[in-house]
Amino acid sequence: MSCPDRPETQCTGLAKRLMVQTTAFCHLAEQSERNTGAFGGRTRAAIYARVSTGHNGQDPTMQTREWEEYCQRRGWDVAGCYVDTGISGSKESRPELDRLMADSHRRRFDAVVVWKFDRFARSVSHLLRALETFKSLEIDFVSLSEQVDTSTPTGKMVFTVLGAVAELERSLIAERVRAGIRNARANGKRLGRPRVAVDASRIVTLRTLGHSWSAIRRETGIAKGTAQRAFYSLAGIGACLTR
User: Fold this and answer.
1) How many Cβ atoms are within 10 Å of 44's Cβ, its own excluded?
2) Which helix (H) or strand (E) holds 114?
3) Is 143 a catalytic residue?
4) What is the pTM assigned to this prediction?
5) What is the per-residue pLDDT across 94-126, written as a single tens digit (0 to 9) for each?
6) Is 60 helix (H, G, I), strand (E, B) or coil?
7) Strands 148-149 and 140-143
8) Which of 52, 88, 212, 233 is catalytic?
9) Which of these, 53, 101, 54, lies nearest to 80 by C-alpha position?
10) 96 with 84: CB under 8 angstroms?
11) Of the candidates 22, 16, 74, 18, which has an alpha carbon nearest to the alpha carbon of residue 45?
């Protein structure tokens, strides 16, 4: 492309106009992508709700009503509602939640919408595992109360922070376990399975009489490997091939 008079000024102005148009086009493309499903149609949203009990005024309708309005504002179609009623959030396995996770692998929706994190997951690690599953399936996750949407840069940042928190939690648990083991050893406690009392002389006698290892195991009530180790240790045979 050639520029006539004053080329530097005219080329700079043209480049700026192209940049503005390109930026506007990219913004529209991103907005269209957020409102479009994985297969080119409207985004299909799955709604999940949970109430601990059907009594005491707890009604999942309060949760689902705002979701439906949210989906309408974003131009999304509600692909299905998954509602667990009378089930505690401390349970990681719930009928409707399990059905939602199974349908996610069948790609029956493009986004999951919940009222709050604690309505969906029982812990940070549980939430992170679910988000990792949705991410691998290219399914967005939206929490209305926390205003988290993994289809946006801010939502992706929150996902990264949650991953770091979960990793920190795992590290703290591992450190506490190691500290407990060190403390137990310092107090003289034996760790692992308790030792099994083995009458090695009886095993040698039975073996000398021609009993098989299976017969010795049944008669002594100990494992075959334990009986063999006791026999070889006492008889001084060494690591021989067993019959």
Assistant:
1) 20
2) strand 111-114
3) no
4) 0.52
5) 888 899 999 999 989 999 998 888 788 877 778
6) coil
7) antiparallel
8) 52
9) 101
10) yes
11) 74
